[in-house]
Amino acid sequence: MDAVRKRIAGAIADRGLTYKQVSIELGKNHAYMQQYLDRGIPAKLSEDVRGRLSEILDIPESELGAKAGRSSRPPAGDVASLAIRGGAGIGSPEGVLSHDNGEVYADHINGFWSFPEPVKAGWRNMPQVYSLPVTGDSMEPTLASGSYVFVDMTHTVPQPEDIYACDFGDGLSIKRLQLVPRTDKIKVMSDNERYDDHELRRDEVRVYGRVVAWFQWRG
């Protein structure tokens, strides 16, 4: 076990926590910390995980493998806002660059949203929720162009039917998805009746996460 892992394991023990508890606080599966500490998977902590772990264990990120002068999510807010667009029709949506575990690279983050405690209490996976602006009109009247959606990136299976951030070949899009029963297909739908629905194979659609909230000005 390397020095960083020993430091983390010691801090968890000192605080009377379990690996499972810390994993859940990170918004990960129950075995995440045990796999990282005992099996070396992943080899290194992503910037977002390292930042959150620093908060949980009250350890400077420099002791968790961060390069000097660098941190992941500064304590500037609750939900990171991404400098990428989710297309909902006309436009040229950009792709999402992320780590293998689905966490978005810190270079995409251009700000933060802050929320009062009663609102945060209802968000189960806030460390893995990201915000991004919507372009296009295919999800109107539900989502107007210029809206901001909040995407829970732990929810990558499109069930139940709902609105998801996804990519089916044209870059990042915000669409309503539905698993087609007894098939290997996903139905990709727009709320705007001007746009056709499509059925694609599940392996043709990458689901980044479920839209759990959105914000838009009503003018």
Tell me what you see in this structure.
This is Peptidase S24/S26A/S26B/S26C domain-containing protein. One of its GO terms (cellular component) is membrane. Keywords: DNA-binding, Hydrolase, Protease, Transcription, Transcription regulation. InterPro entries: LexA-like, LexA/Signal_pep-like_sf, Pept_S26A_signal_pept_1_Ser-AS, Peptidase_S24_S26A/B/C. Residues 108-212 form the Peptidase S24/S26A/S26B/S26C domain. The chain has 219 residues and is an alpha+beta fold. The chain has two domains: 3-64, Orthogonal Bundle (434 Repressor (Amino-terminal Domain)), CATH 1.10.260.40; 79-215, Ribbon (Umud Fragment, subunit A), CATH 2.10.109.10. The chain contains five helices and ten strands, in the order ααααβββαβββββββ. It has helices at 3-14, 19-25, 32-39, 47-57, 117-120, and strands at 79-82, 86-87, 109-113, 129-135, 148-152, 162-167, 172-179, 185-189, 198-201, 206-215. Strands 1, 2, 3, 4, 5, 6, 7, 8, 9 and 10 form a ten-stranded mixed β-sheet that branches. It is globular and about 60 Å long.
Highest CATH level, the class of the largest domain: Mainly Beta
Look at the structure and give the mean pLDDT: 82
Q: Could you name the CATH topology of the largest domain?
A: Umud Fragment, subunit A
Total helices: the number is 5
**Main sheet record:** 10 strands, mixed
Overall 3D shape? globular
Gyration radius from CA atoms, angstroms? 19 Å
DSSP, total strands: 10
Please give the alpha-carbon distance between the first and last residues: 56 Å
Helix content: 10-25%
The arrangement of helices and strands along the chain is HHHHEEEHEEEEEEE
Low-confidence stretches: 69-75, 89-102
How many structural domains does the protein architecture include?
A: 2
- CATH architecture of the largest domain, by name, is Ribbon
Portion in beta strands? 25-35%
Protein name: Peptidase S24/S26A/S26B/S26C domain-containing protein
Keywords: DNA-binding, Hydrolase, Protease, Transcription, Transcription regulation
GO molecular function: DNA binding; serine-type endopeptidase activity
GO biological process, one term: proteolysis
